[in-house]
Amino acid sequence: MHLDQLKLWFKTYQEKSLFHRYINNDFIEPLLQKLPYRFQVSEIGKSVNGESIYKVQFGTGSKKLLFWSQMHGNESTTTKALFDMFNLFSGDEKVINSILKACTVVVIPILNPDGARAYTRLNANNIDLNRDAQDLSQPESKILRQLFDIFKPDFCFNLHGQRTIFSAGNTNKPATVSFLAPAQDKDCTVTNNRKKAMEVIAEINTTLQIQIPNQVGVYDDAFNINCVGDTFQSHNVPTILFEAGHYVNDYDREKTRIFIFQSLFVSIDYITNHEVSGEFYKPYLKIPMNQKLFYDIIIRNSDKGDIAVQYQERLIDNKIVFIPKIEKISKLNGCYGHKELDANGSKVLFANEAVLKVGDENDFVFVNGEKYALTP
Q1: Peptidase M14 domain location, by residue (predicted)?
Q2: pLDDT confidence bin for 354, thresholds 50/70/90
């Protein structure tokens, strides 16, 4: 697929009613009600707090693809991109019609609606659904597993978001998008099943590298059978983890949203037009592994050393607010800030001339008497 076409489609089909980081059922339900006839929308269960969990199905083909988003309630970028995709698939583009004939696509837009409403990673019982694949102790986990068992997908897409701390390898490049073909056994064997997932990721990476060179990473594939991706992979269904990460000055994740939209389409289009065998998996192995090398801000060379600031995301009056918090004060060689200041040996203080301490929160600091905002 030509990149210019992907860019044009995003501009044309972006769902503009969804933006920023806070997305819950109140935002998506009106959109689900407006989807055209080719989409079948149904409620497939309830969350702990009784919120609806929805399934969207479209296409009539023999290749079956299963997607789920917001398993962690505060990871909404992929949900926005899914609704951009729904808009694209509502149109009559020739390539869309061929995909609809080749594939049947099932999507859970928000698996954890309670966590989405509270803007938390966990569900209402404080359980990480991505560690509940074996116990199936939560209604949301059971709903996903039942759908997996009934639908019997050929590929699974586990859609997440990642923190700003990650770099793409041991570099000063943020991991704007990351992937994983999860392990399916404790030896992390590169099975043929995993190779199929790797081949699709390699195709996505080719498109992304043109736009965000050296800003794509992969996660460690250490096996954990309690994780949903590892479990589904162990059932011999190629499973792909998506992680929407940070792009420069993109704390709303609207730029990253574009790359997720492109990645979703490229994966569907590739599966449509190829019998994915796993033969072309090796480029995946060259994607660097994520490292935790970033802070949101580093103030270099204060009289106390380097000062690392990390934003705390908090839901306040139905908006996500980024609260700067002093995370570390030490020499931070080998670490990077998405924004960096040089104190040149000066004191760094709060407004009342208080000395900064780890754990402090404030929107600004004074460096040598000059005020600097810490908020994005």
Answers
A1: 18-376
A2: confident
CA-only gyration radius of the chain, Å: 21
C-alpha 158/C-alpha 210 separation (Å) is 24
Q: Please, are residues 33 and 110 in contact by the beta-carbon 8 Å criterion?
A: no
Q: Are residues 125 and 221 both part of a single domain?
A: yes
Residue 65: which region, alpha, beta or left (left: phi > 0; alpha: psi -120 to 50)? beta
The residues facing 328 across adjacent strands are: 308
CA distance 263 to 345: 45
Domain count, the chain: 2
Which DSSP category does 282 fall into?
A: G
CATH number at residue 215: 3.40.630.10
Q: Residues near 207 by Cβ (< 8 Å), separated by ≥ 6?
A: 1, 3, 6, 262, 263, 266
> pLDDT by residue (tens digit) across 298-348?
999 999 999 999 999 999 999 999 999 999 999 999 999 999 999 999 999
Q: Both 277 and 345 in a single domain?
A: no
CATH code of the domain containing 338: 2.30.40.10
Distances (CA, A) of 280 to 11, 95, 135, 368: 31, 23, 35, 56
3-state secondary structure string, 177-205? EEEECCCCCCCCCCCHHHHHHHHHHHHHH
Listed residues 254, 271, 292: the one ending a domain: 292
Put simply, whether the predicted model's pTM sits higher than 0.90 gets the answer yes
Residues in the chain: 376
Q: Say if residue 276 is in the same domain as residue 316.
A: no
Structure tokens at 272: 């449509």
Spatial separation of the C-alpha atoms in residues 107 and 241, rounded to whole Å: 15
How far apart are alpha carbons 263 and 273 in whole angstroms?
15
Say whether both 288 and 342 belong to one domain: no
Q: Which domain holds residue 33?
A: 3-292
Whether residues 242 and 313 fall in one domain: no
